[in-house]
Amino acid sequence: MKRLVAGVLLALALVACQTQPPDQAATGPVLTGPLTVASQGSFFLGGQDVRSDTLSNSARYEPSGTITNDQVYVHYQTPVDAKPASIALIHGCCLTGKTWETTPDGRMGWDEYFVRSGYPTYVVDQASRGRSAATPTAINAAKVGKSPPDQLPTLFAIGRENAWVNFRFGERYGEVFPGMQFPVEAQAEFWKQMVPDWLESLPTPNPTVPALSELSKRLNNTVLVSHSQSGIYPFQTVSLDPAGVAAIVSIEPGRCPAPTEDVRPYVKLPVLVLFGDYIERSPRWSPRLQGCREFVDATNKAGGRAEVVLLPDVGFHGNSHMLMQDRNSLEVAGWLRQWIEKHVE
After folding, report:
1. Which residues form the signal peptide (predicted)?
2. Could you read off the pLDDT of 96-124 as tens digits, one per residue?
3. Cβ–Cβ < 8 Å for 58, 51
4. pLDDT tier at 27 (50, 70, 90 boundaries)?
5. What are φ and ψ of residue 303, in 5° steps?
6. List of residues 6+ apart from 152 with CB closer than 8 A
7. Residue range 140-145: average pLDDT?
8. Distance of CA 247 to CAs 55, 162, 233, Å?
């Protein structure tokens, strides 16, 4: 009888162990409770002094003086017992670093998720976007007649009608793809994130690129995670100088490097190009996916470790272009965390 009772107790204990939730190392970060950080702050990268006589067209302020231009703002949080690799998050067209913060419907953003995962996390505002201030000099020069109107900078904003289609919420404004994950009930909050885009008025290379190189060197083990318009920037950064870059994660890039370009700078790095869902239904995105596949093939033929992953192929369905804000955004972030843990020391 004692042996029988002991056997039953042992069996119950084994069942209890099997039904306990796995430890944090297996499941990822604790997503509730206090967020403990060792440090947080912000700084600027790059920038140059500019002397101008068209700083103002207001009678209240002097038009002449010196300002700083082309600087890039970075906000960071460092967790306690941080991992050796850092994550740098770079937003896309017509947006700012808000892309990676709290979602439009109030859920945790990727910035907090990766801090909770143990990674020092750096959120970038591209040059002339968000807290990386743009210069008014060319606009003021045209207004006061010091330069012709055709010298005005190219500046654009994208209306919600075009963004709806470009970001693959649906094929037409107001229509939603079946099973689409973006929280359209909170779209009013998303539209507030949109800002004017100065990209076409900036010098080449975009000042964000050397800033990312400076950031990577400073951190010395950086995963550059870019999105859309900025998707090409990590590649340009590595071509400029690979120092400090640990991996490239390009999420739905506007373009990848052409397969005919020199791919040798990327051969020594793990490279992930990640796409969401409904690509085949988008005339805008299907050619971009094909171009990235050709780049990956060329890189791997040269001895690289690059891959293109479509989220439906790894079990995630319904993701829009804004997959870091979709309803399953943390599940996607968890998959990406595992990819980083596998490829980056």
Report:
1. 1-25
2. 999 999 999 999 999 999 999 999 999 99
3. no
4. low
5. 100, 15
6. 138, 139, 142
7. 96
8. 40, 32, 13
Tokens of 165: 């289609």
What average pLDDT does this structure show over 198-224? 97
Q: For residue 68, list its beta bridge partners.
A: 49
End-to-end CA gap in the chain: 53
Q: Which residues contact 295 (CB under 8 A, 6 or more apart)?
A: 256, 257, 258, 259, 263, 273, 306
For the chain, where are the alpha helices, taking DSSP H only?
2-19, 24-27, 110-116, 137-143, 160-166, 187-191, 208-219, 233-240, 286-301, 329-343
Judge whether residue 261 has pLDDT over 60. yes
pLDDT in tens, 55-91: 999 999 999 999 999 999 999 999 999 999 999 999 9
* 57-64 contact pairs (CB < 8 A, 24+): 57/140, 57/143, 57/144, 63/140, 63/144
State how far the Cα of 24 lies from the Cα of 262, in Å rounded to an integer: 42
Q: Are 123 and 97 in contact (CB under 8 A)?
A: yes
| Structure-token match 């906000």, residue found | 75
Q: Which two tokens mark 143?
A: 């207004």
How far is 84 from 78, CA to CA, in rounded Å? Answer: 11
What's at 337, amino acid-wise? Answer: R
Which letter, b or e, does each residue of 78-109 get, where b requires 16 or more Cβ atoms within 10 Å of its Cβ?
Answer: bbeebbebbbbbbbbbbbbbbbbbebbeebbb
Average per-residue pLDDT for the chain: 93
Tokens linked to 154: 């190219």
> Which residue segments constitute the domains of the chain, with CATH numbers given?
29-343 (3.40.50.1820)
Closest CA to 129 of 87, 94, 90, 167: 94
pTM: 0.91
Instruction: Please give the full DSSP string across 230-256, using - where no structure is assigned.
Output: GGGHHHHHHHH--TTEEEEEEES-S-P
